[in-house]
Amino acid sequence: MEWQFTPAALLYAAAFVVSLGLGVYGWRMRAQKGAPIFTLMILASAFWSLGYLFGFFSATPAWKLTMLRVEYLGITAAPVLWVLFVLVYANYEQPLKPRTIALVSLIPAVMMVLVLFVQRHPLIYQSYDFVQVGNLLLFQKEYGVGFWIFAGYQYILTFAGSVLLLVAVVRFPSLFQRQAALLTAAALMPILVNVLYITGNNPIAPYDPSPVAFVLTGSLVAVTIWQYRLLDVVPVAHHLVFESVSNGVIIFDAKGAILEVNPAAEGILKQSEQAVLGKALVEAFPKPLDPLATRDDSKTVKSEVTIDDAIYELQITPIRERGEEFSGHILMLYDVTEQRRLIKELDAYARTVAHDLKSPISTIYLYAQMLLMNEEQWDSRSLSFIKRIERGALKTSDIVDSLLLLARLRQDEQVVRVPVDMDEVIDAVQGRLADVIEDSGAEICVPDGLPGAIGFPSWVEEMWVNYVSNALKYGGKPPKVEIGAEARDGLVRYWVKDNGKGLTAEEQADLFEEFARLEKHKHAVDGHGLGLSIVKRIATRLGGEVGCESVIGQGSTFWFTLPSPSPSAETSTGAKTVASLEQEAQGVG
């Protein structure tokens, strides 16, 4: 056997080595989605390069024909494997049935059989000959009809795979978009070069540039592997995620018509997806739900609903296209029935414990006060102990009262909300805190004529007491407390500003969580960490929000919002009377 190697052979050898290396990588990643097909596709390109290397650079005609058959193993397999890889990689697996694969592979398989017997028919080559050109023995041929049919089919498969991949790019996250773009370029490069070769426009004649293009293709795939973690990170199918979510998910368009429903939502609706597709959302549920009728196209709406004795947290989020154009909503339903049951049991337990503690604590406090009525009877050490007992009992009583209020705020009963005269509430707050204000030498700045709001008077008073008492505790020396309000967009925003040291962003993050206390104040200031969580829970129950704004060295401003008064005298969302709720709010025994 004679060889006619030239320096150009190194390019084809490099193409083979690169393909082989990528094939080894694909095999090592074979457990990953799409990796087995990727490996076969790369090995097909390796056969293409290997067959051309040992065929073109051989000076033996019989060996050239043998290597032609090896080359066509890769040529016929590569486009089929490319399409299959794209279908798996881009989550189009549903068409991948054995029958589909067999049909796609039919023409390449026939082509391979024809190549095996290329000397016996003119379908692939109408004629061929071996011609000496300089130092090279070349295989010259005139293509037959079978070749052109296969070439057209090969290009169709390659471009179809590329189009599918580009279509998938639109719905991929950015990481996978870059993967897909590089893969598409890698797939198209050998085909575009091959078109130049078979049409007689070969820029590097007499060499076939197609296998050489595999060096560039391999480089692009290598970049995709190491830069964008090809096969290590692959897109997850949308339908698999959608169907696997344990919470109910319903997607509906801008007009409220249902577009998609996952299995969990089918169970909640007690209807199949086919039965509700195209229906108005409000018609799909067993009974009308207020949040569905009052949803906002501009922001996420959250609520709690009961459906067939189950309790769900409902969240409706608007969907926007890339141009910020509103196109529909995603509705999520989280089953919180068990959580609510456990919270109810915990609250019942807390109320029981608090009530049981209230009586003995009150007794201890009263006895301590009686002992202090005759201070002259006690020496300084005993008097110090008695005062400590009194303070401890008072603090424990405050904690019990807070726990009882917190438990009541968690109850399911609706609250009758009425117009609240905020000037009267502020007067009551200053009366309750009169001793603390006097002892601290604080200055309280209250404007005339605070705007009223809709709420529950005793609860609103508790909110103010918590905010003002905190301003007195953590303000400057002496404290200066400013109270203010402003009405806008159907809400009244009330605020309390102190002259303290201010809070960092980290310190503000958990202020309204239960039992949250700032580390720097734990030992310097008495407290139990329930006050601000109570404010938050009250505001939420009354249809408002809470927050804090603070700058180090400039004090802090704590605010809450409540609905503005409506023209009607009373806004009722339940059956209890104001009098009964006032009694309940004030009674702790």
Distinctive features:
disordered C terminus; elongated; Beta-Lactamase; 5-stranded antiparallel β-sheet; Rhopdopsin 7-helix transmembrane proteins; alpha+beta; 589 residues; 5-stranded mixed β-sheet; Helix Hairpins; 4 domains
Description:
The protein has 589 residues and is an alpha+beta fold. The protein folds into four domains: 9-228, Rhopdopsin 7-helix transmembrane proteins, CATH 1.20.1070.10; 238-335, Beta-Lactamase (2-Layer Sandwich); 339-412, Helix Hairpins (Orthogonal Bundle); 413-586, Heat Shock Protein 90 (2-Layer Sandwich), CATH 3.30.565. Helices cover 53% and strands 16% of the residues. The protein has 20 helices and 15 strands. It has helices at 9-28, 35-56, 61-89, 98-116, 145-169, 174-198, 209-228, 238-244, 263-269, 273-276, 281-284, 290-293, 337-372, 380-410, 422-432, 434-440, 457-474, 505-509, 531-541, 578-586, and strands spanning 125-133, 136-143, 248-253, 258-261, 301-307, 310-320, 326-335, 416-420, 443-445, 453-455, 480-488, 491-497, 546-550, 556-563, 571-572. The chain has a five-stranded antiparallel β-sheet. Strands 9-11-12-14-13 form a five-stranded mixed β-sheet. Strands 10-8-15 form a three-stranded antiparallel β-sheet. Helix 1 (9-28) packs parallel to helix 7 (209-228) and helix 14 (380-410) runs parallel beside helix 19 (531-541). The longest helix has 36 residues, at 337-372. It is elongated.
